[in-house]
Amino acid sequence: MRCTSWSRSRTHRRDARGAVGHRTCAPIEVVRRYRLPVPTVETVWTQLAAQLEVAELVVAGDALVRRRFPLCTPDRLRAVVEALPRGARGAARLRAAIGQLRAGTDSCMETRLRLLLLSAGLPSPAVNRPVLDRGARIVARADLSYPSARIAVEYDGDIHRVDRATWQRDIARRRALDALGWRTITWTAEDLRHPESALSALRHALVESARMQTS
Q1: Which helix (H) or strand (E) holds 47?
Q2: pLDDT digits (tens, 9 = 90+) for 171-193
Q3: Distance (Å, rounded) from C-alpha 180 to C-alpha 73?
Q4: Which phi and psi angles does 154 have, rounded to 5°?
Q5: Euclidean distance between the first and final Cα of the chain, in Å?
Q6: pTM of the predicted model as reported, rounded to 2 decimal places
Q7: What are phi and psi of 123, to 5 degrees?
């Protein structure tokens, strides 16, 4: 196992076999877990900026503010970034990442898909926004969506293919969306690697929806 240690002092950096020490000028907030002092999740996220690119910082940040059992809030991450001293390592990447975080995600692949759509020039989609039926009941919660266009963008990992219960829930949810006039465009890991076809389908759906709304 490769370990990494951080210190704010030049004299307290520790290098040892299997470990690499780093110096940082950023604040290190510590909490106790099981009687052990550990950095807060916000501190760990800022430290990751020394090694991760902006997109991966967004993926990690989204995971911290996820829909279920979030570990912190976007405001808390933003406050930690704003408190970084000038010249802190990775500060520019953190400032670029903080504006792209979205609370309420359910998976890292959803975040990667959202970033891909944005990099392709598509509008920013809603994240896990509930879709209501005519009786104001929630019938679905699309991974990503364009509510005004009634387009749901779903990411299906392997569990959607091999787990029968998940597969059945997917079918029921998409039937409910179809009944409300929504169109669902499903993405897979292969589509993330080779997105041209899925992007084309999504662009066409958005254009078609806009045309129908103006006709």
Answers
A1: helix 41-48
A2: 888 999 999 999 999 999 999 99
A3: 33
A4: -115, 140
A5: 62
A6: 0.83
A7: -60, 155
